[in-house]
């Protein structure tokens, strides 16, 4: 009942916060969010799952309850965690707590509704990572959209309406495509499945695959579904060329929403890719798509980084760099090796922490300067040494400085993908590695212009240091980044354990 | 159990309670004319409809109307003119739920109105008629019940006597209603001419005998009769091609009455369609006699209705009109239940029943929100609704729930019922209808989200002070929203009840 408790606390907390007075909403939401954060850490400490949730592994905190009987299929409330989802749940709960604290300064309008929506998102994000029945998963997946749409639309920047609707339309259409594809797949599997439980669908897929559906032959159907789900999730990730909603959403979103968007929502896409496309489908279906996907991944890495290089808005720089980092995740997934897939999962957590940190730092600088333009400011280190120091540290994390989690993640991925079996794997890896150079380029360039050098900023007030509650969450994140960089095995062991059955089951 | 010793007509208890409440209100009105005691009037109506709801739920839970239960079984009264089965109880639940929400909301909406007692007793009478429609099992009882539901509705639409829109809407509704009643009665007479029976089971038996024999010479007559009956249903359910009255009537009527008509009256229209076309006109036999499969008519009607409703809704500037067209679109979704009957599976019709129940909450809630806005005195267009969430976050959160649920987006009840319709259509082999359902749902998100965007995201175009929080309207809206959400996790029992009920009727 642990997962249910997490979700219930967040949901009830969301309702309570929604009707609470604005004055206390921020503190109240923070206190409420400590409960899931603490509980999930305790779950992490007592985690006893083995293997992969979809491949007959032993689940931790499993619960299964009959829900609805639909024709020949059972739909059940089926949740549980394995080594892939456990770290992501912890990432979610911690980031939500920190995002709430980081909103205390910038959010000064309709606070109770804001914090209520944040807690509502938290409940659904936990649900996405814990759900093991397709319908339960899909309901949580979709339920994330509405509150995020409102967060961007109500509290966002000048072009918030456009950004919110773009975010909503892109991701909702993608969900619809993916939903239709999975339903067609389950119907196509015929009598081989009697429920929408993901492990059962996976077993049926690996054991013969679909027979066909409305006249479409089985293997064709499987390939079509693979493409449709990949596209559906690629929008969420996002992968070039489906990335255009991301910079708009990020730039307009209020800081805490950006933190959650980059930190957790993007991981929904990569997590779903790992669960569906790269676990559920047998090797012979995936094989023809490996090289195209690798191309897309490398393009995302390089193109995303190039776009970041061309930006002058700090938030846009960080936003585009997410596109680039997510490219690494795809490359790791497609490698189908222990380190590739494991590293990709590790990168999901690592990037969640680092991008969360970066968006917070940009937010803190913006709170003081009211501009995010690199060209407008110079020598910020002079006035806000601590906040800027953290920004610099986060940037080095992004560049993959050893002893920070970014290094471990990227090292695993490159190690895994270099040795992968698909054609030209070393070439793709080498090209992707070039992305790191560009990352270092745009981050150093931005820092040099905005942070170092003589202080200059046109304001009619004195820029002062950030308050403690703005800086504290960043210190926590930085601490976690360093801990995971020094001792990646803290989570990599459980990730590895859950990834093994995928790779063993489908060696490419 | 003591229940078994009750007389058989006790099975009609929900209908009788509704009728009794209506009469009690009349008595109150004659003893105490022109009473403006809203608490007593609305309270009595609410208690009456909730009591009827409670009894109907209890009957369903106890297994009344379920075949095979000892002592209960499907209860036929008056030589099969009235039947109490699970489907009847299911629709009585839908009707009473909507009635209860509407009368509670009317407590505030009709404040200061001259004809309080008349209003509530007409609502209860119409509800009685709709509940009777759910139990009617003969073309005569169906017609009488239909008129009992319709006549009070005409008066209710026009009850704002000083409001031109309301009176005009009432007149239009009445004229078109009278026309469709005439068509319906003509259809009944043709069916009677072809078969010689009015009771639904007897019609089916006669048709089977005819099909087994020489087939008779009345195939064309029967076909024409069925077509006219379909016309009558199409009017009552606001389906194409008899949907023209709906936007006018819903827009002009007081908002609670729009909610009542678009939810309860539509459901009642569908229950007679379900019963007539499953009991009286078995697909294969009728098809053999008239040479055409009548489900084809419903396939076309379903696709056209949902498409017309959605496209028209997308172009509206007036919120109430948008909801009216969306209500037409939803009639199209429910028509899938009739379109899929050819496959002989209960899934598709059960799904249509589930959708009507969920719709009873989400659509009623949406119209009641419009009622709340009218109560506040904000205007009628999307723009007028801009920024309402600043003053009324709870009501606007409820509105967001209704809108997303109407669009079929998780995590709300509307997602399940639409998904069941989708699966049902696929199982019945209606790929085209299933695709139309998905495409229309995706499109509908556009105009539903537009309303959410208006109240939540847009900045208000006029300065507003604080808005009042009328108890009745708020209570009804919040209850409807909570139920729309609760129906997501709690969909299992609903689905089971609907599928069982459909299975009995189809078998």
TrEMBL record, chain A:
It is a multi-pass membrane protein. The chain crosses the membrane at residues 6-21, 28-45, 84-102, 114-132, 138-155, 167-189, 213-235, 256-274, 289-310, 317-336, 348-366, 386-404, 424-445, 466-487. GO terms for biological process: ATP synthesis coupled electron transport; electron transport coupled proton transport. GO terms for molecular function: NADH dehydrogenase (ubiquinone) activity; NADH dehydrogenase activity; ubiquinone binding. The keyword Phosphoprotein does not apply. Residues 132-428 form the NADH:quinone oxidoreductase/Mrp antiporter transmembrane domain. Its main location: membrane. GO terms for cellular component: membrane. It comes from the Archaea. It is found in: Membrane. Keywords: Membrane, Transmembrane, Transmembrane helix. Belongs to the complex I subunit 4 family. This is NuoM family protein. It comes from Natrarchaeobius chitinivorans. The lineage of its organism: Archaea, Methanobacteriati, Methanobacteriota, Stenosarchaea group, Halobacteria.
Automatic annotation (TrEMBL), chain B:
It is a multi-pass membrane protein. It is found in: Membrane. The keyword Transmembrane applies. Residues 136-444 form the NADH:quinone oxidoreductase/Mrp antiporter transmembrane domain. It comes from the Archaea. GO terms for biological process: ATP synthesis coupled electron transport. The chain crosses the membrane at residues 6-28, 40-66, 86-107, 119-136, 142-161, 173-198, 218-235, 255-274, 294-315, 322-341, 347-373, 394-416, 428-449, 470-491. InterPro entries: NADH-Q_OxRdtase_suN/2, ND/Mrp_TM. Keywords: Membrane, Transmembrane, Transmembrane helix. One of its GO terms (cellular component) is membrane. The keyword Transmembrane helix applies. GO terms for molecular function: NADH dehydrogenase (ubiquinone) activity. PANTHER family: NADH DEHYDROGENASE. This is NADH-quinone oxidoreductase subunit N. The lineage of its organism: Archaea, Methanobacteriati, Methanobacteriota, Stenosarchaea group, Halobacteria.
């Amino acid at each position: 009942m642990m997962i249910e408790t997490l979700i219930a606390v967040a949901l009830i907390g969301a309702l309570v916060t929604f009707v609470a007075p604005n004055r206390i909403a921020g503190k109240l939401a923070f206190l409420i969010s400590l409960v899931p954060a603490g509980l999930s850490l305790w779950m992490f400490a007592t985690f006893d799952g083995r293997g992969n949730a979809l491949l007959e592994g032993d689940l931790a905190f499993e619960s299964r309850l009959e829900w609805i009987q639909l024709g020949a299929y059972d739909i059940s409330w089926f949740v549980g965690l394995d080594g892939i989802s456990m770290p992501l749940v912890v990432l979610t709960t911690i980031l939500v707590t920190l995002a709430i604290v980081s909103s205390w300064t910038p959010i000064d309008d309709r606070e109770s509704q804001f914090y209520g929506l944040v807690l509502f998102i938290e409940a659904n994000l936990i649900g996405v990572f814990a759900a093991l029945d397709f319908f339960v998963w899909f309901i949580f997946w979709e339920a994330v959209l509405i509150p995020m749409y409102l967060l961007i639309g109500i509290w966002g920047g000048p072009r918030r309406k456009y950004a919110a609707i773009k975010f909503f339309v892109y991701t909702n259409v993608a969900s619809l495509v993916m939903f239709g594809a999975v339903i067609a797949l389950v119907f196509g599997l015929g009598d081989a499945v009697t429920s929408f439980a993901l492990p059962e669908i996976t077993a049926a897929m690996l054991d013969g695959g679909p027979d066909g559906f409305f006249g479409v032959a089985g293997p064709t159907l499987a390939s079509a579904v693979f493409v449709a789900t990949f596209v559906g999730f690629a929008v969420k990730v996002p992968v070039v060329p489906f990335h255009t909603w991301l910079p708009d959403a990020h730039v307009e979103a209020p800081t805490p929403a950006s933190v959650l968007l980059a930190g957790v929502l993007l991981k929904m896409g990569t997590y779903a890719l790992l669960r569906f496309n790269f676990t559920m489908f047998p090797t012979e279906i995936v094989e023809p798509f490996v090289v195209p996907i690798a191309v897309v991944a490398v393009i995302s890495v390089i193109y995303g980084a190039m776009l970041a290089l061309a930006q002058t808005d700090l938030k846009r720089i960080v936003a585009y760099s997410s596109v680039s980092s997510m490219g690494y995740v795809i490359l790791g997934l497609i490698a189908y090796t222990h380190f590739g897939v494991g590293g990709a999962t590790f990168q999901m957590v690592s990037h969640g922490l680092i991008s969360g940190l970066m968006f917070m730092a940009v937010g803190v600088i913006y709170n003081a300067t009211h501009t995010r333009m690199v060209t407008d400011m110079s020598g910020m280190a002079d006035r806000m040494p601590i906040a800027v120091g953290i920004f610099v540290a986060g940037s080095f994390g992004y560049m993959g400085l050893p002893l920070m989690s970014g290094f471990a993640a990227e090292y695993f991925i490159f190690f895994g993908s270099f040795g992968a079996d698909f054609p030209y794997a070393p070439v793709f890896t080498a090209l992707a590695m070039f992305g790191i150079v560009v990352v270092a380029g745009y981050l150093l360039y931005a820092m040099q212009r905005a942070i170092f050098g003589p202080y200059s900023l046109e304001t009619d007030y004195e820029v002062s240091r950030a308050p403690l509650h703005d800086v504290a969450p960043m210190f926590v994140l930085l601490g976690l980044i360093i801990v995971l960089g020094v001792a990646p095995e803290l989570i990599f062991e459980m990730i590895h354990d859950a990834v093994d059955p995928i790779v063993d089951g489908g060696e490419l | 159990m003591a229940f078994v010793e009750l007389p058989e007509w006790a099975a009609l208890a929900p209908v009788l309670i509704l009728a009794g409440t209506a009469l009690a209100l009349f008595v109150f009105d004659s003893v105490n004319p022109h009473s403006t005691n809203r608490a007593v009037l609305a309270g009595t109506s609410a208690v009456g409809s909730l009591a009827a709801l409670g009894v109907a739920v209890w009957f369903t839970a106890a297994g009344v109307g379920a075949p095979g239960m000892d002592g209960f079984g499907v209860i036929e009264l008056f030589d099969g003119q009235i039947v109490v089965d699970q489907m009847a109880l299911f629709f009585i639940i839908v009707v009473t739920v909507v009635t209860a929400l509407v009368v509670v909301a009317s407590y505030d909406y009709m404040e200061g109105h001259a004809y309080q007692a008349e209003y509530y007793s007409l609502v209860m009478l119409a509800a009685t008629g709709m509940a009777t429609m759910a139990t009617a099992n003969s073309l005569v009882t169906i017609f009488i019940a239909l008129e009992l539901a319709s006549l009070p509705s005409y008066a209710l639409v026009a009850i704002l006597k000083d409001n031109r829109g309301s009176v005009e809407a009432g007149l239009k509704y009445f004229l078109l209603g009278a026309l469709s009643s005439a068509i319906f009665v003509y259809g009944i007479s043709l069916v009677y001419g072809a078969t010689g029976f009015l009771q639904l089971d007897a019609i089916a038996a006669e048709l089977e005998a005819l099909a087994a024999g020489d087939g008779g010479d009345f195939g064309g007559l029967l076909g024409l009769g069925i077509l006219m009956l379909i016309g009558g249903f199409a009017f009552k359910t606001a389906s194409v091609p008899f949907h023209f009255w709906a936007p006018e009537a819903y827009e002009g009527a007081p908002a609670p009455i729009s909610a009542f008509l678009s939810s309860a009256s539509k459901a009642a229209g569908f229950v007679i369609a379900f019963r007539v076309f499953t009991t009286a006109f078995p697909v294969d036999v009728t098809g053999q006699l008239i040479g055409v499969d009548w489900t084809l008519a419903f396939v076309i009607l379903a696709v056209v209705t949902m498409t017309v409703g959605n496209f028209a809704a997308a172009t509206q500037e007036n919120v109430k009109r948008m909801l009216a067209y969306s209500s037409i679109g939803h009639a199209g979704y429910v028509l899938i239940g009739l379109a899929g009957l050819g496959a002989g599976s209960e899934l598709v019709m059960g799904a249509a029943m589930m959708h009507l129940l969920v719709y009873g909450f989400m659509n009623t809630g949406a119209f009641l929100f419009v009622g709340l806005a009218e109560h506040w005195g904000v205007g009628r267009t999307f723009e007028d609704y801009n920024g309402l969430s600043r003053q009324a976050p709870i009501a606007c959160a409820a509105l967001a729930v209704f809108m997303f649920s109407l669009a079929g987006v998780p995590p709300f009840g509307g997602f399940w019922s639409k998904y069941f319709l989708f699966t049902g259509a696929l199982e019945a082999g209606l790929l085209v209808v299933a695709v139309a359902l998905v495409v229309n749902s995706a499109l509908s998100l556009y105009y539903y989200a537009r309303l959410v965007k208006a109240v939540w995201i847009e900045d208000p175009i006029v300065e507003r002070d604080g808005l009042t929080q009328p108890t009745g309207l708020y209570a009804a809206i919040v209850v409807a929203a909570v139920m729309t959400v609760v129906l997501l996790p709690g969909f299992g029992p609903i689905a089971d009840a609907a599928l069982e009920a459909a299975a009995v009727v189809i078998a």
